[in-house]
Amino acid sequence: MIRDPESFQVFLNETRRWVKEVAIPAEDCVEADDQIPEDLVGQMRELGFFGWSIPEQFGGAGLTTEELVLAAMELSQCATAFRARVGTNTGIGSEALVADGTEEQKARYLPLLASGEVTGCFALTEPEAGSQATALRTRAVRDGDEYVVNGSKCFITNAPIAGLFTVMARTDPEDLSAKGISAFIVEGDTPGLSVGRPYKKMGQAGSPVSEVYFQDCRVPAANLIGGVEGKGFVTAMKVLNKQRLHLSALCTGPAMRMRDEALAHALQRQQFGQPIAEFQLVQAMIADIQTEIHAARALILETARKRDKGEDVKLEASMCKYFASEMCGRVADKAVQIFGGAGYVADYSCIERLYRDARLFRLYEGTSQIHQLNIAKLTLSAAS
Length: 384
Ligand SMILES: Cc1cc2nc3c(=O)[nH]c(=O)nc-3n(C[C@H](O)[C@H](O)[C@H](O)COP(=O)(O)OP(=O)(O)OC[C@H]3O[C@@H](n4cnc5c(N)ncnc54)[C@H](O)[C@@H]3O)c2cc1C
Prior knowledge:
The protein is 50% helix and 14% strand. It is α+β, with helices and mostly antiparallel strands.
């Protein structure tokens, strides 16, 4: 649902302009320095990027799902680091509070996340709990008005720069199922919380990811999200359900960028006396790229509209994430092919970097295999 098409178009144009005129020209510097220049982070704050999905009453833009995915497709057409910088605030790092936080928790933390004053992150994954997230071992033991948290998390996006951590921890040691898990908001300066050094990664330079450690970390009981133990995994799944749709849009933007780069190259690069775009075998790759992007966009927009109507989109959201992330991988591969050697050499094109950035999409927030299993399970249960 788009609430006011005219003003929404102005907002999309503004985002597109910033991506083209500010972010894309800064990509090489982000790659070289492995960080986004602070003045550009400031611009993203001023433009309201951090609060897109946070309700207006807490300082965000309160975008509907359809508006959010359309905006995400624009912002993700520059290096992934830019949208990852804001993406934990306007996504997994705030959504647990939006979905299940108490009124006090929302009022205290959401404005800080919406303005970008504080960076959020979402800490679910652990060394022994990846695809099997319910196997997490981080413990939170109640002690008076506090919980004492011990354990560690790995692969947490924005942890090195985060001021607010959404943390999944086991509150019931007897219950090893999802029901033994609770969600907490932990402030970054809480004694006993520390983060590791940012990992060296295959791609997405400028997006810091690290481990998080809890050693007798005392968290106020008031920071138990929703105020009820044992609801953490349900909260996490709510977060990931909406986020799957959001992420599928964030996989489509890079594919659109790579299409545009590949088209420009195919029209300009001459071989055998003509632009390579005139060769039918190159055209076949262009046709596949264009068709795949169109299919992903259509699937995502249809699902977003369904969600805005309040319908259950568990199945569709999983299909969106699976299809869009795999689609982006296929588009990235074809874009390298259209560029030829220049697609492999960073000195000659941005495609080499975009190809590496895209590889993560099939791994996080549910690997493709986990989504295949989920899609099959939901399809089979509807049929039986
Ligand atoms: C850069 C980066 C950023 C991340 N950011 C975050 C974050 O902010 N917060 C967070 O909590 N996590 C984050 N993650 C973690 C990410 O969500 C996990 O890496 C992902 O869920 C996969 O878990 P795993 O790496 O342990 O792989 P594993 O679960 O060990 O999977 C390895 C392989 O086995 C397959 N596999 C596993 N189980 C099955 C099965 N039942 N059937 C078939 N195949 C299976 C997988 O599909 C995969 O191919 C991030 C990861 C990375 C790399």
